[in-house]
Amino acid sequence: MITITLPDKSKREYADGVNALEVAKDISEGLARNVLAAKVNGEVWDANRPIVQDADVQLLTWKDDEGKAAMWHSSAHLMAEAIELLFPGVKFGIGPNIENGFYYDVDFGEYEVSENELVKIEGKMLELAREKQVFVRKDISKADALKYFTDKGDEYKTELINDLNDGEITLYQSGYFTDLCRGPHIPSTAFIKAIKLTSIAGAYWRGDENRKQLTRIYGITFPKKKELDEYLLMLEEAKKRDHRLLGKELELFTFSRKVGQGLPLWLPKGAELREKLEQFLKKVQKEAGYKPVITPHIGNVDLYKTSGHFQKYGAESFQPIKTPAEGEEFFLKPMNCPHHCEIYNSKPHSYKELPIRYAEFGTVYRYEQSGELHGLTRVRGFTQDDAHIFCTPDQIKDEFKAVIDIIEIIFKALDFNDVMVQISLRDPENKQKYIGSDENWEKAEAAIKEVAEERGLDAKTEYGEAAFYGPKMDFMVKDALGRKWQLGTIQVDYNLPERFDLTYIGSDNEKHRPVMIHRAPFGSLERFVAVLIEHCAGKFPLWLAPEQYILLPISEKYQAYSEKVLNLLNKQNIRGIIDDRSEKTGRKIRDAELKKIPFMLIVGEREELEGSVSVRRHGQGDLGTFSIEDFAVMINEEVDDLTAQDN
RNA sequence: GCCAGCAUAGCUCAGUUGGCCAGAGCAGCUGAUUUGUAAUCAGCCGGUCGGGGGUUCGACUCCCUCUGCUGGCUCCA
Fold this sequence. Notes:
Layout: E1 2-5, E2 11-14, H1 20-27, H2 29-34, E3 37-40, E4 43-46, E5 55-60, H3 65-86, E6 91-92, E7 97-98, E8 101-107, H4 115-130, E9 136-139, H5 142-152, H6 155-162, E10 170-174, E11 177-180, E12 194-204, E13 213-222, H7 225-241, H8 243-249, E14 253-254, E15 265-266, H9 268-287, E16 291-292, E17 298-300, H10 301-307, H11 309-313, E18 321-322, E19 329-332, H12 337-344, E20 356-365, E21 381-391, H13 396-413, E22 418-425, H14 438-455, E23 459-463, E24 472-478, E25 484-493, H15 495-499, E26 504-505, E27 511-512, E28 515-520, H16 525-536, E29 549-553, H17 559-571, E30 576-578, H18 585-594, E31 599-603, H19 605-610, E32 612-617, E33 621-627, H20 628-643
Parallel strand pairs: 1-5, 16-20, 22-23, 29-30, 29-31
Antiparallel strand pairs: 1-2, 3-4, 3-5, 6-8, 7-8, 8-13, 9-10, 10-11, 12-13, 14-15, 17-19, 18-19, 20-21, 21-28, 22-24, 24-25, 25-28, 26-27, 31-32, 32-33
The protein binds one RNA strand through strand 12, strand 13, helix 11 and helix 18.
């Protein structure tokens, strides 16, 4: 007999070789019907894998991430089975589960496969799923595994097996398909009730662009049809919020072939929005002791030789421009830090001045491969809300704290409430690949960890993810649809101070090396605005809305009064426009609603007589009549409230 | 850069197996209308069907090529 301990600490006795499914059945039939896998002593197992000694067991269902993972992983097998039946002789790469579903990389050989085939494969999958195929785990020797896949002609599988150790190789067989697989899997394909193959794309074998490109098919499955429908609905919603679509509709930005791909053109409304964001951050930074600096868009090639960027990125950058006479070479600046280092170097510094914080909304240009460009989130020219802090190693902790304050102010003002942090530290196994002294690294890493702890940040620490020049902290937000985006970043840098020979005179009258901290709360304005658009579905908070209100005169007769209201509100820094078309009010309201303008002010005879406006709020409807002054107060209060920096 | 797909008016899209002057709605312009909480009516303007080459009696439609876009891959100071 063995003892199974459940998460609630209750213990149950079973015969040796019991499996999680049987334990579930023992608890309730209903539970058993939902068990996809089980966590046995912290490791995810098949629900039908025999347990031979005392163990902690947690039953996993669709509600658990690991349950979903098992389901999707099994779905990948099911898809491979369907593909093998439909396209005999294809070869398989890898087929893992991913955050939302799964994929399988397939070498289709001579077959031409396009999106049209996806429906066919889906159909076959559903057919196979209904057969309730059981996933059977088999331990197999390396030699036998190699033989099986060599006979089958699956060279990708044999390559994978060659990298594995004998004794740790398992196969899973379901229906007509057997795959090299670590598992775990769901008990049977019966759980897979709804299937959607979402896309098809090329993917290099093992991510290596020098190797063969396989066809990757993405899909997602659900235990209930209804959940698939909800998922598809969510995708629809995401599509509607796509910043590229809204950017066009709301006239925020555009692209032009003539200007060049990946080079956004900000339209007046987008520029207004962006300016508000910049002003907001500038104000916050000013209060936090940042000094604005301005640097040119190009820099001499020597600058980047000093910084080391030339050696690392020179070949894959926009190539340098030359002076006509001397042939001197200049790069478009791909980052602002080298320029800022030279500003620091423009005069000697005392320890008493530190920390020095140089801030610049610096526009940088990076050559991105054409296939990688995407709306505003991946562009070739963008503006960083950059700043570089020059400080002593002992000041790192306080500086991190202060930067986190700024980032939190911004996220709060923009209603990003779900924030996660990734702390990237050195690989403790491989310390020599990093620049900077061991002592400094330890100090900085400890400081970052402490700050995260003190702030109660939802932080995940990744070892080995640090840049060679220093540890960093990245901020991720979840938007209104639950999608994750990486935005702000704080990075410690020991490299550039060294390369630029940055120094300060300490209290000991000796030269010392400052530490540099790169930080950008938004990351880039372009990317941030893109995320913001999708987060709020184009309904910007009042303080950011390019147009905060629109005046809708009932008829031409009230045009003059509208202009008077516009002027009065303008004096109070409230932005608005007039819809002076000879349209009916209903039409004007409809158009204003579609433009997502926060307030509509309807003015006619009544309003003109009493000096008021009739207020309608976007998405809410009629709020009643306000005096102009009361309306202005209401707007300004809301703006102040949303951009308040304390609490 | 690679794989796959797409490219028709400012926007969203029609356009049959290649066949007369390429269509619609919205937007724009003009006129009428002077309007009270989600679409007033009429007329007009607007396209070398992404660029170039080819096949054909004939190409928006078929082929090649370039450019751009989309979904992935690779990359990201």
